[in-house]
Write a structure and sequence with these properties.
This protein is α+β, with helices and mostly antiparallel strands. The protein has 5 helices and 22 strands.
């Protein structure tokens, strides 16, 4: 490689020194040979030209880089000039009736719950129920050994028979004494009165014996334990063969009425006037949802409102009743109660996900026929579950964007796909933009 292509400073210095030596040799030969026809032609390279040769590779590399950058910027400009299509999810604006719900946390409470205990002392000899069985009122559930009380009954009946015989004799003597006193005066008035007192005493003994018989029969009745209500039997607390006593703390079993069943729930005190006003006009439907507020368990009606407000929480208690024919509700179960306060007819509804908020207020992206979007301000009446009721801004049968709004602006072209129907869980996470519904 020639030395003049070496663009490092030492190479340039060697090139210049070699050039000066060649120039000196040529001058000496010119002086020693005056013949102009035989002079050698030497090329003089200026100093600035040699420096230019050293920078030539750098200039070529810069041109290559600049050409590549200019080509990329042109491609980007072409891409930027073409408006991209944004894929979004859309949903139609609907005109429907919107039920208004109030949501409160409640606890399931049975109408009746009975703890059955023995009223007599004795051995449990028979159990006529299964755990979890539905029983009817008056159905036999358990038997305590009745034989001791049957013996007491026999004794009381024998005593009654004896006292009745004595009473009959005393009554006959009393009648005789009265006749003798009236006919011949063979007996005194005192004897007649004494006999009358004996009759009364024996009559009292007979009545006492009858009470003893009734008591013995009652004890035998207590030995046969029956269900006092219609309900479901819980877990058995004692097994057959054990001795039971009337003073035992633990019950033999617990029966709980499940059909119908009630729920006690709370609402803020500000909502109670509206509920009371609607309740005077007729019954209000209620719905019981699971703990996560997603699964509907039962449907019932509101019974009443408590007569006072809890000062510690500022809430009032309400009671609702459910038929609970499928045993979906259980005592002491926590549920979310949705009380339907009213139904707003012909409301303009959009999915709650379609509503956006900005410095100028709430708005939605409305899809135009040419698959572009338009920013449309809307006025929100309330949000109930997964839908929002609006009073202005959109019309029924228009289409709004529900997903992908962060990539849109006015006039953006879109590729729409129909979103799933909004899940309208009544009252679930609802926020009423217009305040509490008026009564």
């Amino acid at each position: 490689m020639p030395s003049f292509l070496n663009f490092s400073p030492p190479g340039q210095m060697k090139f210049l020194m070699r050039h000066r030596c060649q120039q000196g040799t040529a001058n000496s030969e010119r002086r020693s040979q005056p013949d102009f026809s035989s002079r050698r032609l030497t090329t003089r390279i200026p100093r600035n030209v040699s420096a230019l040769f050293g920078l030539l590779p750098l200039l070529l590399l810069s041109l290559v880089i600049l050409s590549g950058c200019s080509g990329g910027s042109k491609t980007e400009n072409v891409r930027a000039a073409a408006s991209p299509t944004v894929p979004v999810a859309v949903a139609p604006v609907q005109l429907e009736d919107l039920p208004i719900y109030l949501v409160g946390l409640g606890t399931v409470t049975p109408l009746n719950s009975v703890s059955l205990r023995s009223r007599v002392d004795g051995q449990l000899v028979r159990v006529d129920f299964r755990e979890g069985q539905h029983v009817k009122k008056g159905q036999l559930l358990a038997v305590i050994d009745p034989r001791p009380f049957e013996v007491q009954l026999s004794q009381a009946q024998a005593t009654l028979f004896r006292d009745q015989a004595q009473l009959r004799d005393a009554k006959l003597n009393y009648e005789r004494f009265k006749g003798l006193l009236q006919d011949s005066g063979a007996v005194s008035q005192q004897q007649v009165d004494t006999q009358k007192a004996l009759v009364d005493q024996l009559d009292g003994s007979v009545r006492n014996d009858q009470a003893s018989i009734d008591n013995a029969k009652l004890q035998i009745t207590y030995c046969h334990i029956t269900s006092p209500i219609d309900g479901r039997v819980g877990l058995r607390q004692i097994d057959p063969g054990n001795m039971v006593h009337a003073t035992d703390t633990n019950p033999l079993l617990i029966i709980t009425q499940l059909q119908p069943i009630t729920t006690i729930f709370t609402l803020p005190q500000d909502q109670l006037p509206s509920v009371a006003h609607r309740l005077r006009s007729g019954s209000l439907p209620v719905e019981a949802f699971s703990k996560d507020d997603r699964t509907k368990i039962a449907v019932g009606r509101l019974l009443t409102i408590d007569n006072q407000i809890d000062t510690t929480t500022g809430t009032g208690r309400l009671k609702a009743e459910f038929s609970n024919e499928d045993d979906a509700l259980w005592p002491n179960q926590f549920v979310n109660i949705h009380l339907q306060l009213e139904v707003r007819k012909d409301s303009i509804l959009v999915p709650a996900a379609a509503v956006q908020r900005g410095p100028q207020g709430t708005f939605v992206f409305v899809v135009k026929p040419d698959k572009t979007v338009e920013v449309r301000p809307v006025t929100i009446a309330l949000t109930q579950g997964g839908v929002t009721a609006v009073t202005s801004g959109v019309s029924p049968n228009e289409t709004v964007v529900t997903e992908g709004q962060d990539k849109l602006q006015a006039g953006s072209k879109i590729e729409p796909r129909m979103a799933g129907a909004p899940t309208r869980q009544p009252g679930s996470n609802s926020s009423q933009a217009a305040g509490t519904p008026s009564s």
